[in-house]
Sequence to fold (229 residues):
Amino acid sequence: MSSSPIKTLSEESLQILRRRGDDARLQNGFRYVRNSSYLSLDSRESPTTVAIPDELESVETFQFLELRPEAAQLAFDYFLQRKAQFPYWANILSAAKDHVMSIKGDADSKTDDWIAVMDRIGLTADYQNRVMDSNYNRMRLTGSAKHWAIEMMTMRFEFLSGLDDLIRTRDQNRMVCYMDQSGQLQLKFRLPASGPTTVTAANWPPAELNGASAVLQGRNSCSSKYDLR
Fold:
């Protein structure tokens, strides 16, 4: 007997969104959610809409992890095989990491072909462009192509896994990630009375965030706004 699909957003959260005027429309396996749905009531941030996979265990989640459609399908098929063998052990993030590590070769120096490795993994052009941004060459070379891909996937999956709770607890003071007008995830301290405050290196150096990975992961990682070039 098959189990019910695991939804990224619970029915409770969807009802909360609707009461807030966000219908979280479902289209092609994604729900489109405004960032104001999980920021404070008087947030002054732009009304950015984020495409969230409707089902957590889906090919759309692998696409959210910056895999092109064909690579996302391969990774999802592998996940289904693992789940059939180990139903209580298999999970999306482990399958994504296994997919990355299964690809032949890696790149970790200036002379290595980073683009070729990322192409073989099946990473999106948008992600590749962010990684290869010349402003961050020094930082990029502190890890390898596979290392940064796994770091990016981990942070994106953690964002997905925590979004339901963020929606249900929007009025509580806490650190949150949100997607800004440019499409980059930023780190905020959510204050219901006065709106979120941008975290900067001057007022809150977050020990738990790897600044290098935050910048390299671009539009879907929490950035503490350090200048790490």
Q: What stands out?
A: The chain has one domain: 11-220. The two ends are 53 Å apart (CA to CA).
